[in-house]
Automatic annotation (TrEMBL):
Pathway stated in the Swiss-Prot or TrEMBL entry: Signal transduction; phosphatidylinositol signaling pathway
InterPro entries: DPNP, Inositol_monoP_metal-BS, Inositol_monoP_superfamily, Inositol_monophosphatase-like, Inositol_monophosphatase_CS
Higher taxonomy: Eukaryota, Viridiplantae, Streptophyta, Embryophyta, Tracheophyta
Protein name in UniProt: 3'(2'),5'-bisphosphate nucleotidase
Residues that hold Mg(2+) according to the record: 120, 183, 185-186, 325
Coiled coil regions in record: none
EC number: 3.1.3.7
GO biological process: inositol phosphate metabolic process; phosphatidylinositol phosphate biosynthetic process; sulfate assimilation
Cofactor names: Mg(2+)
Key words of the record: Hydrolase, Magnesium, Metal-binding, Multifunctional enzyme
Record's catalysed reaction(s): 3'-phosphoadenylyl sulfate + H2O = adenosine 5'-phosphosulfate + phosphate; adenosine 2',5'-bisphosphate + H2O = AMP + phosphate; adenosine 3',5'-bisphosphate + H2O = AMP + phosphate; 1D-myo-inositol 1,4-bisphosphate + H2O = 1D-myo-inositol 4-phosphate + phosphate
Family: Belongs to the inositol monophosphatase superfamily.
Length: 388
């Protein structure tokens, strides 16, 4: 098992990794894996007994290739150094391109007749006259990426092929059958800044998340290497490896049981989560460390290997969480021994279509800290409500 060295201030290095340095290190060493308790339900039992090896191999390949495409776009973006905050064309190209690559790879590797993908993008804007130039850039990038693998580039995709691949993500999901769930670039603002982002791909089977893959190109793997691929299969544990396929390492959430020693993750952007509420919860827990604010589901990956103990997400009133924002990360943490719930302690339900119905927000930690965290969350929400 790989061992990582802890250094003072490393936790802050997660917030920005470009330009990259040799000294960027993960926080804590991964510890031994504890298998999740199996559910008592017959359906859950049937699902956990199944193997998703073929699907996992396809998902890892798809997410890695999509990350390769995104890295190429981000590198060009940062080298140009002329990107304005209002011009989101590079992330648009990467977003669509990533979704197309994942769709193409999954359909080539698996049964395309039953393929169902719940994803963020559709091709509507690209089919308009003003989207033609962008579509050309996407098609070129997708074909270059697929060809770079040496497996999928024999017959270049046409514009219509790329549009169809993007539009395959229009599925509504639901409680029956299998549905892939994709966020082609989770953390678009982080992507534009040169910070953290992730390609997040999960698989639902009868409404349950059974497979999760997170490709995190800017998250440190070790002192020498940047870029992580986290993957998990139901009842199979969580593993981490490099994006180019190093030997996988089984990871586990921290076994910390003292809230005062915990560090917590939250969204980088205040617009994405209520930082003041997270601060109140941390205060009630006695947390002494400042929050670690990073973009995307990279937080789930970092938490799964023990880089922190708590993740708090409380969106602003009226915002509805989408399943692609959490499906992959949920399983990555759960299979690493963590607990993911809404603010009331209810498990997340991914079976109701494109949206998650939640009580207030999402909280993530290990099993030892969850009771204290739920108590602090409840007290903080009550205080917040009484002050209105």
């Amino acid at each position: 098992m790989a061992t990582f060295t802890v250094s003072t201030g490393t936790i802050n290095s997660l917030t920005r990794t470009l330009p990259l340095t040799k000294n960027t290190k993960p926080l804590f060493s991964p510890s031994l894996h504890l298998t999740l308790k199996a559910s008592k339900s017959t359906l859950r039992g049937a699902i956990t007994s199944m193997s998703y090896g073929k699907e996992l191999a396809a998902a890892k390949n798809a997410a890695s290739l999509a990350a390769r495409l995104c890295q190429k776009v981000q590198k060009a973006l940062l080298q140009a150094d002329v990107q304005s905050k209002s011009d989101k064309s590079p992330v648009t190209v990467a977003d669509y391109g990533s979704q197309a690559v994942v769709s193409v790879v999954l359909q080539k590797e698996l049964d395309s007749a039953s393929f169902s993908l719940v994803a963020e993008e559709d091709s509507g804007d690209l089919r308009k006259e003003e989207g033609k130039e962008t579509l050309q850039r996407i098609m070129k990038l997708v074909n270059e990426t697929l060809a770079s693998d040496g497996t999928y580039g024999n017959a270049p995709l046409s514009e219509e092929d790329v549009l169809a691949a993007i539009d395959s993500g229009r599925s509504e999901g639901g409680p029956s059958g299998q549905h892939w769930v994709l966020d082609p670039i989770d953390g678009t603002k982080g992507f534009l800044r040169g910070d953290q982002y992730a390609v997040a791909l999960g698989l639902l089977d009868e409404g349950k998340v059974v497979l999760g893959v997170l490709a995190c190109p800017n998250l440190p793997l070790s002192e020498e290497k940047v870029g992580c691929l986290f993957y998990a299969q139901v009842s199979g544990g969580t593993y981490m490896q490099s994006l180019d396929g190093s030997t996988p390492t089984k990871v586990h959430v921290t076994d910390l049981d003292n809230p005062e020693e915990a560090s917590f993750f939250e969204s980088f952007e205040a617009a994405h989560s209520l930082h003041d509420l997270s601060s109140l919860i941390a205060k009630k827990l006695g947390v002494k460390a400042p929050p670690v604010r990073i973009d995307s589901q990279a937080k789930y990956g970092a938490l799964s290997r023990g880089d922190g103990a708590i993740y708090l997400r409380f969106p602003h009133k009226g915002y509805r969480e989408k399943i692609w924002d959490h499906a992959a990360g949920y399983l990555v943490v759960a299979e690493a021994g963590g607990v993911v719930s809404d603010a009331a302690g209810n498990p997340l339900d991914f079976s109701k279509g494109r949206y998650l119905d939640l009580h207030e927000g999402i909280i993530v930690t290990n099993q030892k800290l969850m009771p204290a965290l739920l108590k602090a969350v409840k007290e903080s929400l009550n205080e917040k409500a009484s002050s209105l």
